[in-house]
Amino acid sequence: MIFSWFRQRRRRKILAQPFPPEWVACIDKNVAHYHYLSAEEQARLLDEIQVFVAEKNWEGCGGLVLTDEMKVTVAAQACLMTLGLEGEPFRHLLSVLIYPAGYAVPEERWHQGWSVKGESARLGESWYRGPVILSWAEIEDDSKHPGYGNNLIWHEFAHQLDMLDRATNGTPPLATRQERRRWHEVMTSEFQQLRRDAAHGRATLLDTYGAENEAEFFAVATECFFDVPVDLKEQHPRLYEILSSYFRQDPAARILAHEGS
Q1: E strand map for the chain
Q2: Are 194 and 206 in contact (CB under 8 A)?
Q3: Residue of higher predicted confidence among 105 and 47
Q4: Are residues 119 and 25 in the same domain?
Q5: Is 104 left (phi over 0), alpha (psi -120 to 50) or beta?
Q6: Which of 17, 86, 149, 186, by CA, is between 20 and 30 Å from 210?
Q7: What is the domain extent for residue 218?
């Protein structure tokens, strides 16, 4: 209880500070979906961004000097995901690490009883109760070219949501047995279809990297849900519906309403 009191007190101090206008400029530039939000949603998102930036530990890696634009861009897209969710979905995330571009990590594989050491190229990672690691070059590219169903921030932060129940299996915590049953039915069907499409080399809206496993499928589907929601709703209506129910958001409706106004 006392920790909660201190946390709320600290957040009141954070939110008592005016939101920097240069941060709004970063959001306008790098978060296309911000413009489709209602005024109330935008105000709530700005509050969430301010708290996220202040409470997380930010580290530049590989010689990168962090800027406010980097922090705000990551925070804005991460917090956009959770606008409709209750509680504090990213409460266990303490650190965000950003590299200037892709990076390599040591890797050890076993082949016929022999240890083979090498490196694995990465654009991002997400660890349970650990950091989210991101490539700024990839984030910049995603921000400059939205609408292709690719977004590194949404991908890696989807893994954070997935891991809230301590299992990385493509199923975030769901409230009822009925929701879990429906989720399993729809996501399994869509995952298997993507695996068939990938095996036959068929072009898909969903990145075929999602065919790797259920966790990657949820992350890839989340990218499409926020980046190309109208296309996802048209081509994968059941998948869109189940994600809309989970995130408690309807980004396709926002875009269509904005275009019709």
Answers
A1: 57-60, 95-99, 103-111, 114-122, 124-126, 132-135
A2: yes
A3: 47
A4: yes
A5: beta
A6: 86
A7: 169-261
